[in-house]
Automatic annotation (TrEMBL):
Gene Ontology MF: a single term: transaminase activity
InterPro entries xref list: Aminotrans_V_dom, PyrdxlP-dep_Trfase, PyrdxlP-dep_Trfase_major, PyrdxlP-dep_Trfase_small, SP_NH2Trfase/AEP_transaminase
Sorted UniProt keywords: Aminotransferase, Pyridoxal phosphate, Transferase
Family label: Belongs to the class-V pyridoxal-phosphate-dependent aminotransferase family.
Domain Aminotransferase class V: 44-349
Name under which the protein is recorded: Alanine--glyoxylate aminotransferase family protein
Cofactor list: pyridoxal 5'-phosphate
UniProt source species: Microbacterium dauci
Length: 414
């Protein structure tokens, strides 16, 4: 028998300017090539503790219950939902894009009674609309996406925690797409649970899901565990307090990350190194500075695509800093043009889902790629490709408009 053994992994040079994943910070890739240590090596447990401390600053929380779930962003979502929802609990999910549907689906798998409200893609909810639905539905949990990459919208969250508090509702948010590139204040906004991933504004690969839980959420999880343990030592599967996942049982995961360090899974060492470095580079540059860099790159890209004659999708006033959706011009074959960008320029931009499929491209400026040269290179390449496929584009328009945004910002800073 003969086997053809492929060569060592050797990816092509790519500039990832889609809605995620994005090109990682070089130092994150370096951190991820560091040697492994044992699960309970003092170096490893210290690195876990440091990582918790770093992410408390990233989330803007004092909560000890700030850690990583091993897996992609949806591992964080599943851990939060399976641990906070008991079968039969009412859960309210305001849906303004694809990821709202995902939260509703996962809540259903957690056997919740799921209620949704919807708004048109490209819009966000007024806090009053969410409060009205809470009064009507009386949920135990509100599950709300912050930044939905499918539509690029950034749902304002600053008033939601107070609304939830007033009505005795737990507040969970998926901040995967937004964290790091847009404001997030876990404690000040009264967030009870929030989850993310590394592959958007945090500038790492997918595969680790930062999570933070408020004392109220931790209490619910611990009570659930106590009630459960009281029923039967090994857990009674017929009890509503029984968490129907071992891997995502936050009660157990908190014991592993907490002072007792009770064995649960084996923490994914290399992902921990990567997640730690993502937070470290963010905090070294400064949380506000990184948000400002995303705002500037996002504004330069926005003005750039407008100057190319492209129509921007959705309510721009509520757009995330780090991604823009543009309508594909009449007559331009969207996927073929995207393919040309990738093949000829090594630049990846995103397609779209659901009602927007085939109608818009999504262009991201996130993490390491929220950079002037990445913005200008992408606009120059996009201009050439648009022209190649017959779209009328003013020469130099896109790049010049973006250069002007950067020049204006530099003049403003002087
Ligand atoms: C990108 C994104 C995810 C991604 O989930 P993965 O499991 O990492 O693929 C989840 N939620 C939101 C809001 C996102 O934008």
């Amino acid at each position: 028998m003969t086997h053809t053994i492929p060569g060592p992994i050797d990816p092509p040079a790519r500039l990832l300017m889609g809605p995620g994943p994005i090109s990682a910070y070089p130092s994150v890739l370096r951190a991820m090539s560091a040697p492994l240590v044992g699960q309970y090596d003092p170096f490893m447990t210290a690195a876990m503790t440091e990582t918790q401390e770093l992410y408390r600053a990233v989330w803007a929380t004092q909560s000890d219950a700030t850690l990583l779930i091993d897996g992609t962003s949806r591992a964080g979502i599943e851990a939060a939902m399976l641990s906070l929802i008991r079968p039969g609990d009412r859960v309210l999910v305001p849906v303004f894009g694809r990821f709202g549907h995902l939260l509703a689906e996962i809540a259903e798998r957690a056997m919740a009674e799921v209620h949704t409200i919807e708004t048109a893609w490209g819009q966000v909810f007024a806090p009053s609309a969410i409060e009205e639905a809470i009064i009507r539905v009386r949920p135990t949990l509100l599950a709300l996406v912050q930044g939905d990459t499918s539509t690029t919208m950034n749902q304002p969250l600053d008033e939601i925690g107070a609304i939830c508090e007033r009505h005795g509702v737990l507040f969970y948010t998926d901040a995967t797409a937004s964290l790091g590139g847009n404001p997030f204040e876990a404690d000040a906004w009264g967030v009870d649970a929030a989850t993310a991933g590394l592959q958007k504004c945090l500038g790492g690969p997918s595969g680790s899901a930062p999570i933070t839980l408020s004392p109220r959420a931790v209490e619910l999880i611990q009570n659930r565990k106590k009630v459960e343990a009281g029923i039967r030592e090994a857990g009674d599967p017929s009890s509503p307090d029984f968490v129907r996942s071992n891997y995502f049982d936050l009660g157990m995961i908190l014991d592993y990350w907490g002072p007792r360090r009770l064995n649960h899974h084996t923490e994914a060492t290399t992902m921990l190194y990567g997640a730690r470095e993502c937070a470290r580079v963010l905090l070294l540059e400064g949380r506000d500075e990184v948000i400002a860099r995303h705002e500037l790159a996002g504004r330069a890209m926005l003005e750039g695509v407008r100057a190319l004659g492209l129509t921007v999708f959705g309510d721009v006033a509520h757009k995330m800093h780090n991604v823009v959706a543009v309508e594909i011009p009449e007559g331009v074959p969207g996927d073929v043009a995207r393919g040309a960008l990738l093949e000829d320029f090594g630049i990846e931009i995103g397609t779209s889902f659901g009602p927007l499929h085939g109608k818009v491209w999504r262009i991201g400026t996130m993490g390491y790629n929220a950079r002037k040269d990445a913005v200008l290179t992408t606009l120059a390449a996009l201009e050439q490709v648009l022209r190649r496929f017959g779209a009328p584009v003013p020469a130099g328009g896109g790049v010049e408009a973006a250069v002007d945004v950067y020049a204006g910002a530099a003049a403003g800073a002087r």
